[in-house]
Every structure is written in structure tokens, then in C-alpha cells.
């Protein structure tokens, strides 16, 4: 009988073929998380022969239940992995992932709506085995041709997403609500970028007091950028960098302090 914990233990123990069989069994029983995990193993060729078309099918089954499935499907459409490259579908699935509280998708869309263009995300894939592990893009990948035919399809990338500061602001706010223990420090980065919105007037009115308060939250959770800003632009705020003050601001802003 399928049990997600059993499959995860197999996977972490390096029993990849057994884990794949177990996740496949769960998928055939209609379990969305099992379908996602099996799709991920198909996508990466772990424990099973790599099959992008089949991976897409299992992700598609899980997409209504698992935000990571929507995110990974989006990336497949971005790069044309097992599917025809389609930037509009990429944005559609990325939007689905963001609505299911996937911070990677929320941050991507925030920047995309700021730029008014599709670009290459820093995080390529996310997994649940082990839970929510992001796979980062090689920082040199673009220089090595990671964006094929960029000049040829630049117009398509622009058509797929419009410049919309207000929507960008909303996605920055969504991402900033995740707790500071969230994946790879992304929530801390989100709080800093959310604060920048009030400094730059991106999708909202310029508000120095609110920006400084948000910078204080980001600095308290480890943002070097926020600390640098406070040190140079608002040193008087550093006196307020204590747990009680930070918690009070967090409640006012309704931003999480733990995993959301």
C-alpha cells in the first residue's frame, strides 16, 4: 500500500528504483503527491529512464493539487522540455504556482511584471524529495547559450507578460509574507524587495516610513542589503532593531515570522 513517507525514506536511502515504483503505485491510486514525485524522477532520470513526455503527464495530473508541479511544468514550457516551447503557457503555469503559494513563482512573476518580459529564472526546478529542494541555474549558463534564440524570440517573451507595476507589487507582497525560515533565504530577499517597492514607488505610493520599517524586518531576518540600506540611509532605525520592535512591525505589516 502506498505511503508517501515510505517512498521518501527509500529515496533518501538511495533506493531510487524502489522509490520510483512506490511513487508510481501511489500515482496509479490517484495520489497527487505521488504523481508529482514520480514525474520529478522521470524528469531527472532518477530510478527510472528519463522521459520528459511522461514527466509532463504526471505533473499535469498533480498540477491542481501541488504547486511545485505547476512550477516545474512552467519551466518545461519555458525551455521546450518534452513540450513545444510556449511562453504564454509558461506564464499561466507560473501564475498557478504563485497562487498555490510557491515563493519561487511569486518572486519570478514580481520581477517579470516589473520588466514586462519573460526571462530565465534563477531556480530551474523544485522538488519535494527531499522537501522543496530548489535546483539553481548555473550563473554562467546564459553566457554559454542557456537562452536559445534570444534575439529571435525576444518579441514572444515580451508578448507573454505585460509591464504591470501594480501586479508586480502584489507578487512581491505575497512573497514577503513567507517566514524567514523559508527555502534558501528567499523570504528574506522578498522582504527586502517588498521594501524597495515603497522606496521606488513601484506599484504603490512612495512611503519612506513604511519602507524603513520593512527594511528593519528584512535586516532582522538576515538581509545584508537591508542592513546596508539602514546603515547608510536610516541609521536611526538601527536602535529599533530589537525583538519586540520587530515583532510589532511584523504584526502591523501582517508578514510571517515562521514558515507559511
Quick summary:
The chain is mainly α.
Shape: globular
Instruction: Provide the spatial order of strands within the biggest beta sheet.
Output: 1-2
Distance between the termini: 31 Å
- Could you tell me the number of beta strands? 2
User: What average pLDDT do the residues reach?
Assistant: 89
Give unreliable regions as ranges. 142-146
**What's the number of helices?**
13
SS content category:
mainly alpha
Helicity, as a percent range:
55-70%
Main pleated sheet: 2 strands, antiparallel
Gyration radius, in Å: 20 Å
N-to-C SSE series? HHHHHHHEEHHHHHH
Strand content: under 5%
Describe the overall structure.
With 260 residues, the protein is mostly helical. The chain is 60% helix and 5% strand. It contains 13 helices and two strands. A two-stranded antiparallel ribbon has the order 1-2. α4 (52-62) runs antiparallel to α5 and α6 crosses α7 (103-115). The longest helix has 15 residues, at 186-200. The two termini are 31 Å apart. 42% of the residues are buried. Mean pLDDT is 89; it is low at 142-146.
Amino acid at each position: 500500500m502506498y505511503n508517501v513517507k515510505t517512498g521518501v525514506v527509500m529515496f533518501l536511502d538511495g533506493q531510487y528504483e524502489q522509490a520510483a515504483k512506490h511513487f508510481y503505485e501511489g500515482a496509479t491510486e490517484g495520489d497527487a503527491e505521488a504523481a508529482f514525485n514520480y514525474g520529478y524522477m522521470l524528469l531527472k532520470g532518477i530510478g527510472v529512464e528519463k522521459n520528459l513526455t511522461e514527466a509532463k503527464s504526471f505533473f499535469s495530473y498533480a498540477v491542481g493539487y501541488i504547486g511545485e508541479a505547476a512550477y516545474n511544468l512552467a519551466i518545461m514550457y519555458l525551455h521546450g522540455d518534452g513540450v513545444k516551447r510556449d511562453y504564454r503557457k509558461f506564464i499561466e503555469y507560473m501564475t498557478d504556482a504563485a497562487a498555490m503559494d510557491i515563493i519561487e513563482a511569486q518572486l519570478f512573476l514580481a520581477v517579470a511584471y516589473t520588466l514586462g518580459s519573460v526571462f530565465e529564472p534563477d531556480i530551474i526546478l523544485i522538488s519535494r524529495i527531499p522537501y522543496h529542494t530548489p535546483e539553481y541555474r548555473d550563473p554562467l549558463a546564459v553566457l554559454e547559450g542557456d537562452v536559445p534564440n534570444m534575439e529571435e524570440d525576444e518579441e514572444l517573451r515580451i508578448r507573454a507578460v505585460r509591464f504591470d507595476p501594480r501586479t508586480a507589487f502584489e507578487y512581491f507582497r505575497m512573497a514577503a509574507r513567507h517566514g524567514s525560515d523559508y527555502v534558501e533565504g528567499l523570504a528574506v530577499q522578498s522582504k527586502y524587495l517588498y521594501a524597495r517597492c515603497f522606496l521606488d514607488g513601484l506599484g504603490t505610493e512612495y512611503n519612506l516610513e513604511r519602507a524603513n520599517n520593512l527594511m528593519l524586518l528584512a535586516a532582522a531576518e538576515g538581509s545584508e542589503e537591508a542592513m546596508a540600506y539602514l546603515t547608510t540611509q536610516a541609521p536611526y532605525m538601527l536602535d529599533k532593531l530589537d525583538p519586540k520592535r520587530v515583532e510589532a512591525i511584523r504584526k502591523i505589516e501582517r508578514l510571517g515570522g515562521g514558515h507559511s
